[in-house]
Amino acid sequence: MLTVLIIAMVFTNMIFMPSIVMGFIKNAEHQIITYSTGNILVEPVKDEEYITDVDSLLAKVNRVPGVIRASAQYSMGATLKNKAYKIGRPVIAIQPSNERLVTDVSKNMKEGDYLGDGELGQVIIGIQTAGHKDPTEDMGPTLGAVGVGDSVTVEYTNGVVRNYRIKGIIETFSYSADQDVYVTQEEMESVLGHPLDVATHVLVKTEPGVPEAVVKTQILRFGVREQVKTWQDLLEDAMGRAVQNFSMLNSITLIVSLVIAIVVLFIMIMIKTLNSRRQIGVLKAIGIEQGIIINNYLLQVLLLTILGIVLGVVVVEGMVAYLTVFPFKFPDGDITPYVTFSDLASNTVLILVAAMIAGYIPAWQVARMDILTAMRA
Amino acid sequence: MTMIQTKDVTKVYQMGKVQVHALRGVTVTIGKGEFVGIMGASGSGKSTLLHMLGLLDRPSSGSIALSGIDIGVLSDRERARFRLKRLGYVFQDYALVPELNVQENVFLASMVRGTKMLDYLSSTAQILALIGLGDRMAHLHNELSGGEQQRVAIARAIVDHPEILFADEPCANLDTASSRTVLDLFKTINMEREQTIVMVSHEEWHKEYFDRVLTLQDGLIIADTG
Ligand SMILES: Nc1ncnc2c1ncn2[C@@H]1O[C@H](COP(=O)(O)OP(=O)(O)OP(=O)(O)O)[C@@H](O)[C@H]1O
Ligand SMILES: [Mg+2]
């Protein structure tokens, strides 16, 4: 019984820690897609600063099968000021009705409201830029806890200075999305002094279930000259290192759990075998063949291991179910463990193999011992 | 007909740097149907000799033949088969399988030998009744007294009528009445079936049951009544 419990624990440990790390990775990916880049990001042709002829690009991309919606963003550097607080942030101009269909920022307003089409003199800012009431929650420089209805001064890099009323505060729990500052396209046009016919990038949302790479190929086939990158491409480019480190961390966690599992199983089964040394000696004395004794013994170990794994699967699934309803609260958002069937299957095989080896070696050693020595134990 | 024949059997145990000469050259011949008692002081080598004869250990030198077969040349596997099919052994410390109940301990070997289930169930019930444990079939060894465990060990050894029955102090934990039950049983199967029995004992009064007494002292046979 103890054996079964320990195997169950070992199994749970093997699955669970890596699944939390996977949860982090999935969460980060989800945040990037839903708040920052969309599924696909179109960037200017190499060595150019802007995407020109935005309207025709949007029209083209929106016709591509698998695309839900494309939304253009224009971003300009600026300095934001509130009283003595002063921070540099790019200000992103969007067309709100369009942007709503592409990112989920509009669904994550902590206070106030999202921008409406054509609104002037209003800004929405992320909580990490606005600042929390409790400054210990801030993870970088802020405007010192500004809220809805407060005003901020924005000095654009083209020299234009504006006073905006804060219409809403964004809180997505994605650190980068919670720093963003948005105004409407029309506001940006008034800052620039001319109509906005360029964009710094275009976010594209694709239909769920359609692989981004397929849609990307389609977009390129529709004659888009700009750089088209899926979120996976972007992760590889920009965050490549971080993701690699993450998956390396995961491999290490897995290897460590595996080593612990094997050592624990080994010790436990070894003790169990040594304890049944006398019994094995008696069976041999009666004249039962070594092979039969070992096989019988391995069958017992196999049975216990399978029971342990079954119990482990139940525990893991139970914990996943629980944590899906009540996730871990992290600064990066809610983390739920991510367990795939293949994780369960491969770990089951690993544990079975480890148990068989851990069972076979001592059983063989004891069965090989001379009868009287084994019986004297 | 010769059942057991030994020639100059010695056994030396290595205890670190010290050598213990448990047997110093035992030569003896035992015929079919003999009921032989091995007697002698504690430490004289009685159990050691029985281990050699029962194929539980190999002598340091000398040879042993059982039913005309030189067992020195048998592989471990063949020796295991020999024990299973042809020998019965009552251990000085019973050596029951703790996970099995009384009945299972008795029929375990029959089962492995390939006896039909109905047959071994009935022969097990019979022998246990005969030995006074008919109502203890489902008990585990830790629910039995020393004497009862000893009787289970005896039942296990004789249930399938081995060619040779070895018994190492089978009455050590029994009162006189129970001892007589066991010795009477041994005598009966000895007479009725010509069962060859080699039994270790240190009780003088057991001699009345034996056809022949071998007396061991310091690893040598110093007296043989046969
Ligand atoms: N495994 C062993 N290692 C070392 N010495 C041993 C071993 N087994 C037995 N001996 C020694 O061999 C000698 C004979 O032992 P054995 O057990 O045959 O005696 P015995 O006549 O059966 O005594 P008892 O009446 O006490 O059972 C003793 O001196 C004992 O200490
Ligand atoms: Mg002895």
Would you kindly provide a written description of the structure presented here, covering whatever features stand out?
- With 377 residues, chain A is of the alpha+beta class.
- The model of chain A has no long low-confidence stretch (mean pLDDT 86).
- Chain A has two domains: 2-28 and 238-375, no CATH class; 45-225, no CATH class.
- In chain A, helix 1 (2-37) packs antiparallel against helix 8 (240-275) and helix 1 runs antiparallel to helix 11 (341-368).
- Chain A has a six-stranded mixed beta barrel. A two-stranded antiparallel ribbon of chain A has the order 2-10.
- In chain A, 38% of the residues are buried.
- In chain A, strand 13 (328-330) and strand 14 (333-335) form a beta hairpin.
- Chain A has helices at residues 2-37, 54-63, 96-99, 127-130, 185-192, 212-221, 231-237, 240-275, 277-286, 290-325, 341-368, 371-376, and strands at residues 40-43, 51-52, 67-82, 85-94, 109-112, 122-126, 151-156, 161-170, 181-184, 198-199, 201-206, 227-230, 328-330, 333-335.
- Chain A is elongated, with a radius of gyration of 30 Å.
- Chain B is an alpha/beta fold and 226 residues long.
- Chain B has one domain (2-225): Rossmann fold (3-Layer(aba) Sandwich).
- Helix content of chain B is 34%, strand content 30%.
- In chain B, the strands form two sheets. A six-stranded mixed beta sheet of chain B has the order 6-7-8-3-9-10.
- In chain B, helix 3 crosses helix 4.
- The longest helix of chain B is centred in the last third of the chain and has 18 residues, at 176-193.
- Chain B is globular.
